[in-house]
């Protein structure tokens, strides 16, 4: 219990706090279960509205087209109104220059002539814009009547209104937020300092700065296994920039292999794991990715490695690649866990010369082979007997009789003469 307590806390205080924490954790777990049930119900209600969403999306598209037509009609009317303003201004100037008896003073004849010219120039344009505005308004009014009738028909066929769909979506979003908040509260309840205390905390070391400045603490800050990209990721996630590369670590080259992360969220049922037991299963997305990678690299004569977490996935991967094997000959050795499913050409191209010779010998003189469970590649039932030159090379001692039999110089034993 002292290992769980902060320095200065008694065992009784720690036990009481632990009991209270367990009670809070149990209550929090019940609340999370209730919230998850509400979230599932809200999500189900929102999913029931999915068939209706397309109908309302069509209605929104029709409404958007109506809005465009109305906007075009208003713009046409606005242009006609601007032209009318120019004509009205010219007519007002002409009326102001004329006397009550209709005559114009000599000094105002130039201004009158200019205003009349502007009126004559603006009037035809105004009449054209006015006709266009009247036509645009007529078309917009007819389109509005037809659109409103179509919207009414579509709305009548929709079992759920837009407000109801919006309410269900809002309820689902709020239920999800509540689940996340309760999970965070549960984590805060369990993440108590007196529960996660470690030896460093008892020594007064809780931060990286305290660890590096403490005289009795040695910080291991050099790594020799990973490249700069992986080390940068580790620094961002957990090490706060502490890690640095050793001398053997080199920078990433253009020809070096890379790790590509494939997001399978959009594959829906293909991304679901088919469980065959509690700790084993397979998924179709892995089969599709493995086949695509093998086809890509097989065209260039390159070797492809496929690593699967379970033997079931290895068997499924073999079946997915089976039709790529020419002449029915197996091209892959599939293993799971730490084993590597290796796929290479049948003729051994790209392999060492010794390996190519052994493969050619196996094809010329086939032996009886069995099959390893979960593997499509044949494996020998027993290890081949060591040859004399290999025995001599490795210092293997043999009896005189065995050596004579291998050399072919052993004399035959006395046997009865069958001819006699």
Poorly predicted runs are 1-5, 338-351, 362-399, 414-420
The helix-and-strand class reads mainly alpha
Helix % is: 55-70%
Number of domains: 3
Q: Give the C-level CATH assignment of the largest domain.
A: Mainly Alpha
Q: What is the radius of gyration?
A: 43 Å
Strand order of the largest sheet: 5-7-6
Looking at CATH, which topology of the largest domain would you report?
Answer: Helix Hairpins
Sketch the major β-sheet: 3 strands, antiparallel
Gap from first CA to last CA: 94 Å
Overall pLDDT: 75
| CATH architecture descriptor text of the largest domain | Orthogonal Bundle
What's the helix-strand series? HHHHHHEHEEEHEHEEHEEHH
| Overall morphology | elongated
Instruction: Output the number of helix runs.
Output: 12
What fraction of residues sit in β-strands?
A: 5-15%
User: How many β-strands, per DSSP?
Assistant: 9
What topology does this entry show?
Blueprint: H1 11-48, H2 50-97, H3 109-157, H4 162-190, H5 199-202, H6 208-213, E1 222-223, H7 228-239, E2 244-245, E3 273-275, E4 281-283, H8 284-299, E5 304-306, H9 311-321, E6 332-333, E7 341-343, H10 353-364, E8 369-371, E9 378-380, H11 388-394, H12 400-407
Parallel strand pairs: 1-2
Antiparallel strand pairs: 3-4, 5-7, 6-7, 8-9
Helix pairs in contact: 1-4, 2-3, 8-9
Fold and architecture overview:
The protein is mainly α and 420 residues long. The protein folds into 3 domains: 11-185, Helix Hairpins (Orthogonal Bundle), CATH 1.10.287; 265-380, no CATH class; 384-411, no CATH class. Helices cover 57% and strands 6% of the residues. It is built from 12 helices and 9 strands. Strand 6 (332-333) and strand 7 (341-343) form a beta hairpin. The longest helix is centred in the N-terminal third of the chain and has 49 residues, at 109-157. The chain is elongated and about 115 Å long. Mean pLDDT is 75; it is low at 1-5, 338-351, 362-399 and 414-420.
